[in-house]
Design a protein that fits this description.
The complex is a heterodimer.
Chain A lengths: L9 E5 L4 H11 L5 E6 L2 H13 L4 E6 L8 H12 L4 E4 L14 H29 L2 E6 L12 H20 L5 E8 L2 E2 L13 E2 H13 L4 E4 L3 H8 L4 H4 L5
Parallel strand pairs in A: 1-2, 1-4, 2-3, 4-5, 5-6, 6-9, 7-8
Helix pairs in contact in A: 1-2, 1-6, 3-4, 4-5
Chain B lengths: L2 E8 L8 E7 L3 H8 L5 E4 L15 E4 L6 E5 L4 E5 L4 H8 L4 E2 L11 H6 L7 H4 L6 E8 L2 E5 L5 H7 L8 E8 L1 E2 L4 E9 L2 H11 L5 E6 L11 E8 L7 H4 L24 H14 L3 E8 H5 L17 E8 L4 H13 L7 E6 L13 E9 L5 H14 L3 E2 L12 H4 L3 H11 L8 H6 L16
Parallel strand pairs in B: 2-4, 3-4
Antiparallel strand pairs in B: 1-2, 5-6, 6-10, 7-11, 8-9, 8-10, 12-14, 12-15, 13-14, 13-17, 16-18, 16-19, 17-18
The chains are: A alpha/beta, B alpha+beta.
């Protein structure tokens, strides 16, 4: 169960190998985490997270192979996860890839596949887990969105647009779930220094994965529906959103 | 006969972290057994005054027993009452007080059900001499997944004491016989005394154990340093007819407390911020007389002051609140001081801080009280790092041989639970005798793994 301070015991992670997932799991392990089901595309990608969790004394760590783009399997996976963990307190949806956004490198199939991994798959997974959690009468879905989706830039064209869709879907799903005992929390990180962003130029307000984890834990404590990481980005983007387009497209970074 | 509502969100009194369950309302005691035979998990709920998740059963069926609220029989000669478990202490007192009987134990609110009070094994301001409500239960009817039992301290005492304080996890209490306290009047003779610090407060309270039936101290949570633990002690006894003025003597047993106020909407933020609490505490402490005796108060004013506001719990705003209540043995007064210091400096804004002395523990395996000091603090939720702060205090409490109160808890670390409740194994043996398949469940029992599902300590299915 989630305790009264919002801390979960049984957690499922889709995209369990990602740096941000690992940081969030480490933070939760310091609180009430006792069982985890890590899902990812390869066993190797999850090995680091398994090692972390064992070292932190989490009693039960299980691994499952899952590709969120294969949406036909997601309902079955949600049922399997519930069976493995008994009850699911929190589902972290952290699947996604940055991909390319250079127009010259993009073609129709590539845009479709990036949209699938960043929007279609995660949205479908959320839907499957919303069903399972509703039947339980409790639980929380935490989804990693991005500030890139708040106002889409040419430099993040496909990724940003997909996150914009996912962000809207997640907020709407949260509203649809009112009264079910299930809550959705949307996390909007800014630039996070991780494997995924290695090699990119680092903009202002860049943070480490551990700072995202702190924001997530704080959001759980406050029972928030929307979390920015770092929190100051909420105000930065309130301004950036209304910057005139001519200026917006010239902005560096 | 049975209304089964659609999934409904339920919370404890702290209004935090709702979970959804089907709510069934039994029309009779017989319906309860029928409901328990249905598939899925079940749990009884009374008036929902447990602060945390004790009366929630996410995804299961919550059997709302407040429909079973008859006073079956008032035995005036034997000073006892047989009552259905969903009856509130409020309703019970409205019948018994005018007849000259008081309940043997009352918590700080009358809006608890008799069944809930027994399942929590509640205590009152008289624990130091009268014990918990369990000590005054002469017998109870318990509907379990394996049948209906009539248990008492003499008849199947193990199941009786597993149920008293058993948080509803041994079955559903449907009726109970309580002994009553004969009273001459519905008034209290009250003494009030201000103490400048914790040490003085504790010394005075120890002294008053033998002098008064009821005693309690309100503590200023924000006082620090040499003022740490400055308090207002209240003591009392039931007034005799001769203590009343001529006007009251005309109707010495009148009892019709009214709700003065109902908070119309949930405020968007907590009213109880460090600032407002500091102002309230200062005023409350200053307003209290240095020492006053012989004041005549009503039962409601003395025992249930917060019942004057129907839903004061909404004042904590949408995030709700929790209560931290623990007990530590006499000799570990340092733990009380440490908790006050820690939570005072974390600016957790408790305006309701209550200190009380407990007498000896009873036979309830999971009953909270044991001899020592108990301190209870209301804390708004959402404070950064609150969980870790309370975890640290739990360790200190456990190390001192103390425990936290399950009816208030919403966040204890599960690993510490068996340390605080060392008779858990014994309790589970009794529980699995009447509920071998673990049909009875609450969000609390799952969170703390009270029925030991994770360890596989459950008795084999079918054992009776």
């Amino acid at each position: 169960m989630n305790d009264v301070t919002g801390m979960p015991q049984n957690v499922v992670v889709i995209g369990g190998g990602a740096d941000i997932s690992r940081a969030i799991l480490r933070a939760l392990a310091g609180r009430r985490l006792s069982s985890v089901l890590l899902a990812g595309r390869t066993v190797e990608s999850l090995q680091g997270a398994v090692t972390d969790l064992h070292a932190l004394g989490v009693e039960k760590v299980e691994v499952a192979l899952l590709d969120v783009t294969e949406v036909a399997g997601l309902e079955g996976f949600a049922d399997l996860a519930a069976e493995r963990l008994g009850a699911i307190d929190l589902v972290l949806i952290a699947a996604g890839v940055l991909g390319t956004s250079e127009l010259s490198n993009l073609d129709a199939p590539l845009v479709a596949s990036l949209a699938t991994v960043n929007f279609t798959g995660p949205a479908a997974a959320m839907t499957a887990f919303a069903r399972v959690l509703s039947a339980q009468g409790h639980g929380r879905i935490v989804v990693l969105s991005s500030v890139a989706g708040y106002r889409v830039r040419a430099a993040n064209l496909v990724y940003g647009a997909a996150k914009a869709g996912l962000d809207g879907f997640a907020l709407g799903l949260g509203d649809a779930l009112v009264g079910s005992g299930v809550k959705v929390m949307v996390v909007r990180p800014g630039f996070v220094r991780t494997k995924m962003t290695t090699g990119r130029s680092v903009p202002p307000f860049a943070i480490d994965a551990s700072a995202v984890a702190d924001a997530v834990v704080r959001g759980l404590e406050k029972d928030s529906e929307l979390v920015w990481a770092p929190p100051a980005l909420r105000y930065v983007f309130a301004i950036l959103r209304i910057v005139p387009r001519a200026l917006w497209r010239r902005m560096p970074g | 006969m049975i209304d089964e509502g659609a999934g409904r969100l339920l919370t404890g009194w702290g209004r935090a972290r709702p979970s959804a369950a089907f709510v069934a309302v039994p029309g009779s005691v017989r319906d309860v057994a029928e409901l328990l035979a249905r598939p899925g998990h079940h749990l009884a709920r009374g008036l929902g005054r447990s602060y945390g998740d004790a009366a929630q059963c996410a995804g299961g069926t919550v059997i709302e027993c407040t429909s079973l609220d008859r006073v079956v029989e008032l035995d005036r000669v034997g000073a006892r009452v047989r009552v259905e478990a969903g009856c509130s202490l409020d309703a019970l007192l409205r019948q018994t007080v005018p007849e000259g009987f008081f309940v043997p134990v009352t918590p700080g609110t009358r809006y608890v059900s008799v069944g809930g009070a027994i399942a929590s094994d509640v205590h009152g301001k008289n624990h130091h001499r009268d014990g918990t409500i369990g000590a005054h239960v002469q017998g109870l009817e318990l509907v379990t997944p394996t049948g209906t039992y009539e248990v008492s301290p003499e008849r199947d005492p193990e199941l009786f004491w597993a149920t008293t304080g058993g948080m509803g996890l041994t079955g559903i209490i449907t009726e109970a016989s309580l002994s009553l306290l004969p009273i001459e009047t519905s008034r209290m003779l009250v003494g009030t005394e201000k103490t400048p610090d914790l040490e003085t407060c504790m010394a005075k309270m120890a002294e008053y154990d033998t002098k008064y039936r009821y005693s309690v101290a309100w503590v200023d949570s924000l006082a620090k340093g040499r003022h740490l633990g400055r308090s207002v002690i209240t003591v009392g006894d039931h007034a005799k007819a001769s203590d009343l003025g001529a006007k009251s003597r005309a109707d010495p047993l009148c009892f019709s407390p009214r709700q003065l106020f109902h908070v119309p909407v949930v405020p968007p933020v907590s009213f109880l911020s460090p600032l407002t609490v500091a102002a309230f505490n200062e005023a409350w402490y200053r307003r209290a007389p240095k020492r006053r005796t012989g004041e005549v108060q009503s039962i409601a004013t003395f025992f249930h002051p917060l019942d004057g506001v129907g839903n004061w719990n909404v004042l904590y705003g949408p995030r709700g609140f929790t209560q931290y209540q623990f007990v530590v043995p006499f000799g570990r007064e340092d733990v009380v001081a440490r908790v006050l210091e820690t939570l005072g400096s974390a600016r957790t804004a408790s305006f309701l801080v209550v200190l009380k002395r407990f007498g000896a523990a009873n036979g309830g395996h999971l009953s909270f009280p044991r001899s020592g000091w108990t301190l209870a603090l209301d804390i708004p939720l959402g404070i950064e790092g609150l969980g870790a702060i309370l975890d640290g205090l739990d360790e200190t409490v456990a190390e001192a041989g103390g425990r936290v109160y399950l009816s208030k808890d919403g966040r204890l670390r599960p690993g510490l639970f068996p340390t605080m409740y060392p008779r858990l194994g014994e309790w589970n043996e009794v529980r699995s005798r009447v509920d071998p398949d673990g049909v009875l469940m609450s969000d609390l029992s799952r969170r703390l793994d009270i029925t030991r599902r994770r360890d596989g300590h459950r008795a084999p299915a079918g054992r009776r």
